Amino acid sequence: MAKVLVVEDDEVIADGILRHLDAAGFAAVSVADGKQALARLRFEQPDVMVLDLMLPGLDGWALIETARAEGIGTPIVVVSARGTEHDRVHALEIGADDYLVKPFSMKELVARVQVAARRGAAPAEAARGEPIELEELRIDPREVQAYVDGVSAELTPTEFKLLYTLAQEPGRVATRDELLQKIWGRREAHRDRTVDVFVGRLRDKIDRRAPRHTFLQTRYGVGYKLEPVPK
C-alpha cells in the first residue's frame, strides 16, 4: 500500500483529499505546516507527497527546494490556487513532478498520484555516467551541471535533466510528448508549453553564452535535438 503525505493547511480540502486517496487504496496522512512536512518527508519516506504551496512556517516552494537539495526523490504533486504559467513552470523547475490548480477534480488528483506512485522516487544515481562533451559544451552528470567553455551554465536540476536526456542521443529529434513523459512523467496536453519554456531557458544559458556553436535545435512541428551547429 503506497504511502501519501498530504501537506495542506485547509482542513476541509485536506480531509477531502484523504478520503479520496483512502478510497483508492492509499495509506494517506496529512500535516498542516511545511516544517512538520519536511520532518516526515525525511524520516518516513512516503511514496508521494501532495503539496500546497501557501503554508505556515515553511512554504511549499522552500519545502521543494530543501527536499531536492537533500537528495530526497519522493514524487511531489503540487495542488495550489496559484495558477499562472510562471507559478507552474517555477514549481516544476525547482523539482515538483506535477501541478494541479485549485479547484481541481479529486478523481484527477487520485489519477496523478497513482502515476507518481508507479513512477516512484527518482534514484540518486539515475544520471551518474561519464561527462558528455560536444564542442565547447561539457555535460557532467556527476555534478548535475553543464559547462560552456569551462564556465558553469548554472542549470537547475530540471534544466539539467532535459539537457542530459537530449544528450543521450545527440542529433536525434525527441518529441515534446516523449520529453514530457521522460522528465515530468505525463503526456502532452493541449497547449502544454512546459518543454518549450525549458528549452528557451537552456538556450539563454547555453546557446547565447557559447562562443562558436548553438546546441538546442528545433524540428518544427516535431520537437528538439541536441546538436552543435556553427554560429
Description of the molecule:
The protein is of the alpha/beta class and 231 residues long. The chain has 8 helices and 12 strands. It has 2 domains: 117 residues, 3-Layer(aba) Sandwich (Rossmann fold), CATH 3.40.50; 99 residues, Winged helix-like DNA-binding domain superfamily/Winged helix DNA-binding domain (Arc Repressor Mutant, subunit A, Orthogonal Bundle). The strands form 3 sheets. A 5-stranded parallel sheet has the order 2-1-3-4-5, sandwiched between helices. Strands 6-7-8-9 form a 4-stranded antiparallel sheet, with helices on one face. The radius of gyration is 19 Å and the shape is elongated. The termini are far apart.
Summarize the structure.
The protein is an alpha/beta fold and 231 residues long. The protein is built from eight helices and twelve strands.
